[in-house]
Every structure is written in structure tokens, then in C-alpha cells.
Specification:
- The protein is an alpha/beta fold.
- Helices cover 47% and strands 16% of the residues.
- The strands form two sheets. It has a six-stranded mixed β-sheet, sandwiched between helices. A two-stranded antiparallel sheet has the order 4-8.
- Helix 6 links the parallel strand 5 and strand 6.
- It is globular and about 70 Å long.
- The protein starts with a helix and ends with a helix.
């Protein structure tokens, strides 16, 4: 669909849907309901202003979301072929793990506002199905908490609930605004070493980049690869790639910033396509019981148990 035809479609759609007063607001609220926007009183007030002043822009926003949603292949359980991909997503709190997972499920996911304080949440597992190349892929994604300060405790197997013996990809998230700290670098190095014998299993994911162009993203990747403490890591792990993700901005919709929505949505869909291509192509998997971290932590647990038993007996 060309830009001009999209504008024409949105304009005619807006004229047809123009209604006066609260009836028009209610109608548009119902249409946007499936995108989880224009829900509370403050957002409805913004919607009222858009209906009164920029209904064509409102219609164009809806058309963009509707078309993008259509690219998200619906479940088709009639496919003869099926496959499973298990992912683990690790990273600091607020680094964009949950938003990334929801964007994988739908390119029209609209990110929520970030609160000033967030409690560490338990491990959550998400499951959904995507259709690619005449095959249904069952995607299981474990949204793990931040890796603890002691990297030897931040094992992949401890972030899977229920435990997954086979893991195809581990993503470590880096929020573009939060950057990297020393704990992140230690965790990246540790995880990369643990999965070094499993080919394409470990990668970095820079999040919140929906507003960054491809050229800017390439600059960010170069910057990460040039970090002195990570240069040896990338040299030893040439298979590690840097991916990007992001999601639509809620403020853009509330304010009717159609051009910004169109640009960010195109960016989100491009990044999502690259990520899904990687996920479905990652047929090799890491068996958790084979990783270095598993054996190291198991040895630590055995030592702890051996030390505790005599102490308990003496007590």
C-alpha cells in the first residue's frame, strides 16, 4: 500500500466514520479496544480531542495498526508441519524483556508507561504460535529476572520455569537508555562462555530502539562491539550477534502523531522479522545439562550439601 493510497483510504474512512459527540468517541474507543489504548479517563479525554479535531489522523492510525496486525500470522492448526523453539530472555529490570516478548507476539503491541519503582518479578513463561514457511512454530519464551550480582548463580537453567532441558536461543537484553554496567558485562561473558559449544545459542538484544533508524542501530552495534571489556568476548565468540527490538509508543497514539507511528511501526516490523527469522532458523539447541555453568553450579551445590550435613549432624 503506497503512502498516498493509505492517506486516501484513511481520509475516506475518517469521513465515513465521523460522528458527533460522545457517540463518536464511544465508537472509536471500541475500535481501538483490541490494541489496549484509549482505555482510562485521561486517554478517553485525548480521544475526544482527536475525534473533534483530527478524525482523519485517528482513522489513519487505526488503519496502520489494522494492517500491521494482519501481518501477524493467525494460528493455523491445520498445517502439517510443526516445530518448537525454546527461548530464554535475561537482563536487568526495565531493560525491555517483557516488551520484547509481547512485540514478538504482535507488532502492534503498545508499550506501557514505566513506573518509578518496580519490584523484581518471578520467572514467567510465555507460549504462542507463529506461522512460517508452511509450518507452525510453538514458541516458548522464559522471561527471566535480572541475573544476580554473582554471575555463577545466574545460570540459564535457573531461569526456566518449568525447566526446559533444550534451549534454542538465549537473549541478553540491553536497554538503549540504561546502557551496560560491569554486572552486565560479567553476565554476558559468563553466559557466552557457558554456551560457547552450542553455536548460535547466545545473542545480545538492544531494546527500546523503535525510534532509531537502521543506520543508528548499526552505530550502536559497533559501539557495543568496541567496548574494551567486551572486545575479547566478541573475538572469542564470533557467532554472537546483536539484534534490536522496540514497540509502539503510547504517547504517539494519544497525541495523534501519525507520522511518528508510521515510522516506528515500520521499524518494529523490520526488527521483528529479523528476530523471527533467527528464531525459526535456530534448529540446533543447547542441552542445559551439557553446559559448563550447569556442572560448575552442581559442584558448588554438592560442596554446600557436604558441608551442611556434618554441621547439621553436630547441631
Amino acid at each position: 500500500v503506497t503512502h498516498a493510497s493509505l492517506l486516501s483510504l484513511a481520509h475516506s474512512f475518517g469521513n465515513e466514520q465521523r460522528m458527533e459527540g460522545s457517540a463518536g468517541v464511544a465508537q472509536w474507543q471500541q475500535k481501538f479496544q483490541r490494541f489496549n489504548v484509549f482505555t482510562d479517563d485521561a486517554e478517553i479525554e485525548e480521544l475526544t480531542g482527536l475525534v473533534a479535531e483530527n478524525v482523519e489522523g485517528l482513522a489513519r492510525m487505526y488503519t496502520l495498526l489494522e494492517q500491521a496486525e494482519g501481518t501477524n500470522s493467525a494460528l493455523s492448526l491445520k498445517k502439517e508441519k510443526a516445530a518448537t523453539r525454546n527461548l530464554v530472555v535475561l537482563g536487568r529490570s526495565r531493560s525491555g524483556k517483557s516488551t520484547f516478548i509481547r512485540m514478538l507476539q504482535s507488532p502492534t503491541h503498545i508499550s506501557e508507561y514505566v513506573s518509578l519503582w518496580k519490584r523484581d518479578e518471578p520467572v514467567v513463561q510465555h507460549s504462542f504460535v507463529i506461522e512460517r514457511d508452511e509450518c507452525n512454530y510453538n514458541i516458548n519464551v522464559t522471561d527471566g529476572p535480572r541475573p544476580p550480582r554473582e554471575p555463577q548463580q545466574g545460570t540459564v537453567e535457573s531461569h526456566s520455569n518449568p525447566p526446559m532441558e533444550e534451549i534454542h536461543t538465549v537473549f541478553f537484553t540491553i536497554g538503549v537508555s540504561g546502557g551496560l554496567n560491569s554486572d552486565d558485562i560479567r553476565a554476558i561473558t559468563r553466559l557466552g562462555h557457558a554456551l560457547k559449544d552450542h553455536g548460535n545459542a547466545f545473542h545480545l538484544l538492544i531494546t527500546h530502539t523503535e525510534g532509531r533508524s537502521l543506520a543508528i542501530q548499526q552505530e550502536l552495534e559497533a559501539e557495543v562491539r568496541a567496548i574494551p571489556d567486551l572486545e575479547p568476548f566478541f573475538a572469542d565468540h564470533p557467532s554472537v550477534k546483536v539484534y534490536f527490538s522496540g514497540a509502539l509508543d503510547r504517547d504517539d497514539l494519544l497525541m495523534g502523531n501519525v507520522d511518528s507511528i508510521e515510522a516506528k511501526l515500520a521499524n518494529v516490523m523490520r526488527m521483528r522479522t529479523l528476530l523471527l527469522d533467527h528464531i525459526v532458523e535456530a534448529s540446533d539447541c543447547a542441552h542445559i545439562s551439557d553446559t559448563d555453568l550447569f556442572h560448575q553450579v552442581q559442584a558448588e551445590l554438592d560442596d554446600t550439601e557436604n558441608n551442611v550435613k556434618p554441621a547439621r549432624a553436630a547441631a
